[in-house]
Amino acid sequence: MNNDKEQLLMKKMLDNTKSIAVIGLSDKPSRTSYQIAKAMQQAGYKIIPVNPNVEEALGEKAYNAILDVKEDFQLINVFRRSVYLYDLSKEIVKTDADYVWMQPGVTDQAAYDYLTKHNKQVIMDRCIKVAHSVLMR
């Protein structure tokens, strides 16, 4: 995907999202997932933590898995190692979320292809917080 198309997609995703389910969100303030999700929460997005190892994060109840989330969300932000992406993509396609965003270093072409084949719009290997600060001024 060329840069202009990618930027347009990122802006569209951010414009059309109210709630973000964050897979791998830590409850530790020192972790990148926490810092990024907190910034997105402060920007006005509802954050839904998805992590079986935490009860809550950022004042929100955590869910064990993406398919356990009972709330509406439009975007899934992934903070898991790339090795887990393909298996996660099989769960993600069963959700109503249109958008999947994988943070820097989180890449798997097979998962990307699987998600896009199942009508998900995907950004891979980009920071949502950086994109938000650049595109949503």
Automatic annotation (TrEMBL):
<feature type="domain" description="CoA-binding">
    <location>
        <begin position="13"/>
        <end position="106"/>
    </location>
</feature>
<dbReference type="InterPro" id="IPR003781">
    <property type="entry name" value="CoA-bd"/>
</dbReference>
<protein>
    <submittedName>
        <fullName>Predicted CoA-binding protein</fullName>
    </submittedName>
</protein>
<dbReference type="InterPro" id="IPR036291">
    <property type="entry name" value="NAD(P)-bd_dom_sf"/>
</dbReference>
<dbReference type="Pfam" id="PF13380">
    <property type="entry name" value="CoA_binding_2"/>
</dbReference>
